[in-house]
TrEMBL record:
GO molecular function annotations of the record: hexosyltransferase activity
Domain Glycosyltransferase subfamily 4-like N-terminal stretches: 13-115
Keywords from the named record: Glycosyltransferase, Transferase
Gene3D superfamilies assigned: Glycogen Phosphorylase B (3.40.50.2000)
Annotated protein name in UniProt: Glycosyltransferase involved in cell wall bisynthesis
Pfam families on file: Glyco_transf_4
Organism: Actinokineospora alba
Length: 411
């Protein structure tokens, strides 16, 4: 088979890593011809390491994008794929209105966000990253819905897989302090709140514990995060928060951690390194990963929505006992590693995706269904720009997107 993987802009992020690693594994395990189509960014280096051929896409700010659709049309003409695997809804729109609706090219959609977008065409086979989202999507979508949890290469990400000594030396991390580590995109969307709470929590902990926070990542919120980190460092007269910038290969950062803070795919890679972790989310959510919370995260994903309390004290008090108990940290690390190797391996994820490729490519889609769903999606997208009173009226008639979780719900 020939598969065109249509990914996000290749920033340093979990979804980009998932798309690249899965594409390379499907190629290597099953011999398919896999080509990557995406706007270039720092993660191009990872695609090159995996030997994936990249067709560069325009870097659009809104979707559907005529420029991206034209570039995709040219790529499809040249490559003649049996299927396009699109990662997340912006790419779905760009592929849908040209290649799928007009030319009948099969599409598999993968959604790694933490909501079920109601404006997606409902007949498309779609994967979601948590069991709860799969259940929610199946209740509202006519098309096939499958589970694709963020996969982890548990050989590449493993204790002892990398020498972290040069990283420790470069950033002065061998002075006896305990290292809290976060590997994350530094962006306003989804991430900024938890980054700010993490810095505030280490600010509190550093009053009486030898601890620092190591932030690994880059993004649009880097300046805001850096300003907050500088204020904390100035207050303590030492580097309580160390910002390393982005890393194509962040494994040394995982390896040097005494305790991780994070969410999503980064949380799973933390567990693959046998590191204990406090999982973060939005609206003040934080919860240590342990034997009692593993079932929750298995159902809802490695993320959550809290009650709206954004104070740092709850997070600091979850971190404190773990910093004081190295034996407990070792126990939790071993437990997390066992869960990831059993349930989140890259090889089984690739087998499931390859099966979906074959089935989606072979399925026939009614042109009238595709047209009807395309019109519905266009109407919903237009409705998102309407005044709120009119949107509320449309929601009551089932035409506009609703919120997928009540206020204060844990996600």
């Amino acid at each position: 088979m020939k598969i065109l993987v249509f990914a996000h802009r290749l920033e340093l992020g979990g979804t980009q890593t998932n798309a690249i690693e899965l594409a390379a594994t499907v190629r290597d395990q099953f011999g398919h011809d896999v080509v990557l189509f995406a706007a270039p960014g720092p993660a191009v280096a990872l695609a090159e390491q995996k030997g994936l051929r990249l067709i560069e896409a325009p870097d659009a700010q809104s979707h559907p994008s005529p420029a991206v659709m034209r570039a995709l049309r040219a790529a499809v003409r040249t490559e003649r794929p049996d299927l396009i695997h699109v990662w997340d809804w912006p790419q779905c729109f760009d592929a849908y209105y040209g290649e799928h609706l007009l030319r009948g090219v099969p599409i598999l959609c993968t959604m790694m966000g933490m909501v079920v977008p109601r404006f997606l065409p409902r007949h498309l086979t779609t994967t979601f990253g948590t069991r709860q989202l799969v259940d929610e999507a199946r209740a509202m979508r006519a098309g096939r819905v499958e589970l694709l949890e963020p996969p982890v290469d548990t050989d590449f990400n493993a204790p002892g897989a990398v020498d972290s000594a040069p990283f420790r030396a470069k950033f002065g991390l061998d002075d006896g302090k305990l290292n809290l580590v976060t590997v994350s995109r530094l962006t306003e969307w989804l991430k900024l709140e938890s980054l700010q709470r993490s810095i505030a929590a280490v600010d509190l902990l550093a009053e009486d514990l030898p601890v620092r926070l190591v932030l690994v990542g880059e993004g649009t919120a880097a300046e805001r995060v850096g300003e907050l980190a500088n204020r904390v460092n100035d207050r303590h007269g030492t580097d309580v928060v160390v910002m390393t910038g982005g890393m194509i290969d962040p494994r040394p950062a995982y390896d040097c951690a005494d305790l991780m803070l994070g969410m999503g795919g980064s949380a799973l890679r933390s567990l693959a390194f046998a590191k204990p972790i406090v999982v973060l989310g939005e609206r003040g959510f934080s919860l240590p990963y342990d034997e009692t919370s593993a079932g929750y995260f298995g159902q809802w994903g490695y993320y959550g929505l809290g009650t709206g309390d954004l104070s740092a004290e709850p997070l600091a008090e979850q971190i404190r006992p773990l910093l004081l108990d190295p034996d407990r940290r070792a126990e939790l690390g071993a437990f997390g590693r066992s869960v990831v190797t059993e349930h989140y391996g890259l090889a089984p994820a690739a087998r499931g995706v390859e099966r979906l490729y074959r089935e989606v490519a072979a399925a026939k889609v009614s042109r009238s269904t595709a047209l009807r769903e395309g019109v519905r999606t266009a109407a919903l997208l237009a409705g998102r720009r309407l005044p709120e009173p009119l949107k509320n009226n449309l929601r009551g008639k089932g035409f506009a997107p609703r919120k997928t979780a009540p206020e204060g719900a844990v996600r």
